[in-house]
């Protein structure tokens, strides 16, 4: 039973060859493995996400989410097909999405109605009524898409004609924020890390897009702002530049700080201009995707797959085939070599 294990503690950027590795030593008897009232699933695709870097730390150091224990199978968002079931709630042949072990076959014991009803981290049985590829459920139809949707819907509180700035705009969350914001009548300023990404984000409808590696972010925001909504995916100097260019009553969605994830504790960028939040009467709020599922997941499932199937939304994804590409794929994501959502595909559907 192939699985991905956390093999080496990184200092700075993880080593793509040794930090996450594939282990083939476990075997599983698919016909007889006990299910304990649960299900046996075969994984089809795994999500690759920046927060995984935060989990690659010693278990005794507290974080937002549990650390990966060294030598053990990593976990994350996965889509899988059910091979056997001992619960009336799920049938063999159905597809499920949720937090699982990153291994080819997994037993998920004791599924109860309560767990299925909780929309945060629990397993969801997928209906896929628009017949989209199953792997989309670890991307635009999963946690990444939901992050964009919830953050724009609620914390941003957008009004048509307002200006939104989104960083990491060609990534998994960012490229959906761009499109949802345009659909709601906002002016969108976007930044990303290459000229190829700039062209792609422009093609998604953003009004002004710049390459933050070659342009001066503060000058771009000054010229095209002020900003009513900043959807922050990167933190650091970009957040500081955004705060310098806010409109009165601005909202800041603090969603991610990828520019800081590979730094040591003493290297973190210190934001120097927080007092401007007072001058601009601005609100800054943290977004954690799972908090909003109870309120918006049904609405998300009613609208985003429909709009994707109708071609109203475009999906950029960066697909890696095979578990052995996990280390390379994670590092690509952390340094910006990915275009759109990074997905590890085990089996195409
Ligand atoms: P992406 O697909 O956007 O990939 C990460 C991107 O970050 C890279 O492609 C790169 O793009 C950019 N990046 C890397 N280093 C830097 C840097 N130093 N400065 C600026 N940009 C950088 O990832 P996701 O869409 O999955 O995640 C985006 C952010 O949202 C992350 O911070 C993540 O942790 C956060 N997040 C938070 C969630 C929550 O619930 N709070 C849920 C999901 C994601 P480029 O080429 O443009 O530099």
From TrEMBL:
GO MF annotations, alphabetized: oxidoreductase activity, acting on the CH-CH group of donors, NAD or NADP as acceptor
SMART domains hit by this protein: PKS_ER (SM00829)
Keyword match Metal-binding: no
Keywords (A to Z) from UniProt: Oxidoreductase
Natural source organism: Suillus subaureus
CDD domains: PGDH
SUPFAM superfamilies: GroES-like, NAD(P)-binding Rossmann-fold domains
Record domain Enoyl reductase (ER): where: 17-344
Superkingdom of the source species: Eukaryota
Family matches, as PANTHER family: PROSTAGLANDIN REDUCTASE, PROSTAGLANDIN REDUCTASE 1
Keyword S-adenosyl-L-methionine among UniProt keywords: no
Pfam family, one: ADH_N_2
Name of the protein: Enoyl reductase (ER) domain-containing protein
């Amino acid at each position: 039973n192939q699985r991905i294990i956390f093999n080496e503690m990184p200092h700075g950027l993880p080593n793509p060859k040794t930090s996450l590795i594939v282990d083939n030593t476990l075997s599983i008897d698919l016909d007889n493995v006990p299910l304990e009232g649960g299900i046996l699933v075969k994984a089809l695709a795994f999500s690759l996400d920046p927060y995984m870097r935060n989990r690659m730390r010693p278990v005794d150091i507290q974080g937002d989410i549990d650390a990966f224990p060294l030598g053990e199978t990593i976990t994350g968002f996965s889509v899988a097909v059910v091979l056997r079931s001992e619960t009336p709630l799920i049938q063999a042949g159905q597809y499920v999405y949720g937090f699982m072990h990153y291994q080819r076959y997994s037993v998920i014991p004791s599924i109860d109605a309560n767990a299925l009803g909780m929309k945060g981290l629990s397993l969801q049985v997928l209906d896929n009524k628009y017949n989209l590829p199953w792997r989309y459920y670890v991307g635009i139809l999963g946690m990444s898409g939901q992050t964009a949707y919830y953050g724009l819907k609620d914390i941003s509180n957008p009004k048509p004609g307002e200006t939104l700035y989104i960083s990491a705009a060609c990534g998994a969350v960012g490229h959906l924020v761009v499109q949802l914001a345009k659909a709601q009548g906002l002016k969108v300023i976007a930044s990303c890390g290459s000229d190829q990404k700039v062209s792609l984000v422009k093609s998604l409808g953003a009004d002004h897009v710049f390459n933050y590696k070659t342009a001066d972010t503060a000058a771009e925001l000054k010229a095209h702002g002020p900003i009513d909504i900043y959807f922050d995916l990167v933190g650091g100097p970009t957040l500081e530049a955004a705060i310098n260019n806010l409109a009165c009553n601005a909202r800041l969605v603090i969603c991610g700080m990828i520019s800081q994830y590979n730094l040591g504790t003493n290297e973190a960028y210190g934001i120097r201009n927080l007092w401007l939040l007072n001058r601009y009467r601005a609100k800054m709020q943290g977004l954690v995707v799972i908090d909003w599922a109870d309120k918006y997941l049904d609405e998300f499932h009613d609208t985003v797959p429909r709009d994707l199937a109708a071609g109203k939304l475009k999906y950029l994804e960066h697909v890696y085939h095979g578990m052995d590409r996990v280390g390379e794929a994670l590092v690509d994501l952390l340094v910006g070599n990915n275009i759109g959502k990074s997905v590890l595909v085990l089996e195409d559907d």
